[in-house]
Amino acid sequence: MIDPGALAAQITKLTVESMKAKNAERTGTLRLIKTALMNKAVEKNAPLTPAEEQATLATMIKQRRDSIEHFSKAGRTELAAKEEAEIVVIEEFLPKALDEAGLKALVAETIAELTAANGAKPDPKAMGQVIKAVQAKIAAQGVRAEGRLVSEAVKAALAG
Predict the structure, then answer these.
(1) Which CATH code fits 6-91?
(2) How much is the pTM?
(3) What is the CATH code for 100-159?
């Protein structure tokens, strides 16, 4: 079994290394990650599982992507660049993200399986069922994909 505090210990170690290297941006981001994980553990009142740690980190990335969008619209490119740099650091602790081509292939494979099982291609009304099956396959492969991207890929595959 994986030690529940392994990620926090790793982040603490990396924070010390980052402070010694005088890398303020990385140090700040590592502290944000550790704080978010600690807050989640306190909220849960128990150590986080690796899946919960990954979900917390994925939430942090989603928040930063939203911030980048808002900063870009407001013309604050320096703040958008800072958020982008934070995403790079956070992604170091997550499994590899599934690329667009891999996601489309997985969606097509899932639709083919559902077509074979049901005898007919799923219609757009069955989008939720297809998304659920795709998400299960993504989790089984040990990779990750943003829910919005999965939804868009499924929608495009069912429409076309």
Answers:
(1) 1.10.1510.10
(2) 0.72
(3) 1.10.10
